[in-house]
Fold:
Amino acid sequence: MKSISSLLSILLGIGSCLDLASSFSAGHVSRIFVSTPTKANARRVKDCMTPNPITLKTTDTVEKAISVLLSNSFNGAPVIDPVTGNLVGVISAFDFLSKEEAGALLPFEAGDLEEQQEMAMMARRIVATTVGDLMSEAALTVSMDMTMKDAAELMIKDRCHRLCVVDDDNNLVGVLATSDVMRDAISVLQALPAARDSVDTTAEEI
Structure:
């Protein structure tokens, strides 16, 4: 997780280039000005997300969920309500780890409300038979118009591998994964040599 966060931190600045303006004194460079491009980078989540993502229903069995994720080489997926079609949570490989524990020794007497809720969740996941019992109810959502920079920062902050993309009516329209961020970074990197040539030409003219 730390390596992914570090990578995303680097990717945040990939869309920027260097505009160098130098003033010379006695033949020496006295200052170097570093700035972002004059035109703002227009990369948005809607340009990089995976549309119409594979989803799981709360009523799907744990076995079916594992089969779907493995067959598609995914480590997680959004979870929707089979009746309303609304996004209600996400499920990931970490959720299945709780199921694989096969049992846990829980305190007989609970403490405060937060501790009671935590123990109830642990117990629910251990005996879970459906996705609804096993999933994490807090799904991180972003809008289609969010910038890729802001989306990547959110991934770092919450240490997550994917964000659920919703429209104005809060309907699930896509998923933005770390792999999507890296694919976007490749396209930006391919444009960097031209930017360097421009900077070199400007330096020679100075």
